[in-house]
Design a protein that fits this description.
Elements: H1 5-10, E1 16-23, E2 31-36, E3 41-42, E4 45-47, H2 54-66, E5 70-73, E6 78-83, E7 89-99, E8 110-116, H3 118-122, H4 129-132, H5 138-141
Parallel strand pairs: 1-7
Antiparallel strand pairs: 1-4, 2-3, 2-8, 5-7, 6-7
Length: 143
């Protein structure tokens, strides 16, 4: 049996880009969001590379984006799936993190950081649907 090439191209990809995202709270339970060059928010973290542990991935991403290390990393608190602006399927693993320092040195395209309340978080605008999907998890974040 032969399957037309276009039919194969139209199939949903089984590939998921797995990322680890950090929930960092200040002492009044505001959540840290970071901003890239284009001004859109996201949680710190990024792609989980082959051969890395979850903890190594998160430490690397925190160093690259905000120049600090995690003091503690919780077990996975929740996960969510989304499709990126490029059409890739993304699986995000979300953990709670305490940082060694709040003295940030931005890198990897990040330009700013801010702690936000739940209400402010729900009003944020995103450029990528995979980042925007986290807003549906607000109850889990502030639980």
């Amino acid at each position: 049996m032969s399957i037309p090439l276009q039919t194969l191209r139209d199939l949903q990809s089984p590939f998921y880009r797995v990322g680890v995202k950090a929930m960092v709270f200040d002492d009044v339970r505001r959540l840290l969001v970071i901003y890239g060059k284009r001004g859109f928010p996201e949680l710190p973290g990024g792609g989980w590379e082959h051969g890395e542990t979850l903890e190594a991935c998160l430490q690397r991403e925190l160093q690259e984006e905000i120049g600090v290390r995690a003091k503690t990393i919780s077990p996975i608190r929740f996960t969510f799936q989304a499709q990126t602006i490029r059409g890739w399927y993304a699986l995000r693993l979300v953990v709670e993190v305490q940082l060694e320092s709040l003295d940030f040195t931005f890198g990897d395209g990040m330009t700013a950081a801010k702690f936000v309340t739940k209400e402010e978080f729900l009003r944020l605008s995103y450029d990528d649907p995979a980042d925007a999907a986290i807003t549906a998890c607000a109850e889990q974040i502030w639980n």
